[in-house]
Amino acid sequence: MSERRFKQLMEKVTNFAIIFKDTNGIIEEWNVGAENLFGWTREEAVGSSIQMIYTPQDRANGESEREMGTAAVEGKAEDERWHMCNDGSLFYASGLLHAIYEEAVLTGFVKIVRDLTERVSLEAALQDAKSLMAEKLEEKTGEFNQTFKVLTLEAARHERDNILHSALVRRVMITQEDERKRIARDLHDHFGQKLTALRLRMAGFKAGIDGDTEIRNEFEDLETLANDLDSDVSFLAWELRPATIDELGLETTLDNFVDEWSQQFEVPAEFNLARHAKKRLASVLEINLYRIAQEALNNIAKYAKASNVTVTLTDMDHSVALIVKDDGVGFDPDEERGEERGLGLVGMGERAAILQGRLEIESAIGKGTTVRVRVPALYEEAESAAG
Predict the structure, then answer these.
(1) Which of 38, 158, 225, 356 is deepest in the core (most CB within 10 A)?
(2) What strands, in cross-sheet order, belong to the sheet with 309-316?
(3) pLDDT in the model for residue 275
């Protein structure tokens, strides 16, 4: 009975697909959100293999099995991929797969899917705009070539590419932040509130049960699952866009994030604040410095094997500095890095450049890593006046 009530409450969530499946990938529950996203009714989906929502290529690559294997070991698995609809069309989505255990035995999984097609379409539109702008500028460059020497032309191309790249990166980052903020708000307002209501209802039902140990145990298992889902939703919303950065500013947000990061990855970490100016930093500085710190800490969690981490925010000579230091394994900055790590460092550098600042990375094998970014100080009042 409790399981039925749990699933009835889940059916009220229409913005997300919520799919329960057994350990063999056979669908056991399929909510209204899944019907809306994929096009199969509950009657059509239940009893079918989860493979039907994957593209032929992902089926051949065993992506569903890989996700279940990861979730079984780590408790959850996250992904972003193209999914297949009933009519054969595709949409891009983010997924979170949770393992369900009963008395330490894996009994199945619950998968939450959110449509990200709008975001992908926006990125494609930005790419189209970049191509069109490049074509127009190339035409102008051709005219320019008739008058000036090749050396001057190459310099103009280089400057053009830098300006174009900076403008597009700035626009993409602004768009990403807006999208992160919207998704985080949706997670909190819709899914998070419904999970809270669900937990309260289950606690009330359990309190009214006397003597039936089996039913009470079932309620406790469902409560554990709901609590885990609530924690994951809260953490995802926090990673997407911490609410405190708009309300309380960068210092408080970084302090909280470093503490949360330290607890999650079980690595001692300390936040040091050494700012002398009492004025609040401009929002564009706050969100970009926060993202740089977030990326630096994510790199530490993935690669550094550190025992201690310090994050310092300071100001001097009309500038603001963010320093993230670890005592991990380090790396050779001159050697070629893996794609994921390389992109992360490039992203930090681009954010620093947008703020008219510079990024410095000091590291050596066995001697840890220091990420240092220094940007001109811009305060809230100045930003408002400029706007």
Answers:
(1) 38
(2) 269-274, 309-316, 319-326, 369-376, 358-363
(3) 83
Beta bridge partners of 351: none
Quote the DSSP letter at residue 84.
E
More confident: 147 or 72? 72
Mean pLDDT for the stretch of residues 82-103: 92
Is the per-residue pLDDT at 85 higher than 50? yes
The more confident residue out of 163 and 368 is 368
Q: DSSP labels for 305-357?
A: --S-EEEEEEEETTEEEEEEEE-S----TTSPPPHHHHHHHHHHHHHHHHTT-
pLDDT-wise least confident of 75-79, 242-246, 318-322, 356-360: 242-246
Q: How far apart are CA 258 and CA 351, in angstroms?
A: 20
Q: What are phi and psi of 379, to 5 degrees?
A: -105, 165
Q: In the block, which residue shows the tokens 């989860």?
A: 50
The residues, any chain, with a CB within 8 Å of residue 1's CB and separated by 6 or more, are 215
Judged against a pLDDT cut of 60, whether residue 342 lies above it is answered with: yes
**What is the total residue count of the chain?**
387
In angstroms, the Cα distances linking 240 to 115, 152, 180, 341 are 16, 44, 5, 19
Distance from the Cα of residue 284 to its chain's centroid: 19
Rounded CA-CA distance 40/181 in Å is 30
Record the tokens describing residue 151, joined without a space: 């050396």
Alpha carbon of 230 to those of 108, 195, 376: distances in Å? 19, 6, 39
End-to-end CA distance of the chain: 57
The candidate with the shortest Cα–Cα distance to 96, out of 218, 193, 191, 197, is: 191
How is residue 194 written in tokens? 């419904």
pLDDT tens for each residue of 208-258: 666 667 766 776 777 777 777 766 666 565 566 677 888 889 999 999 999
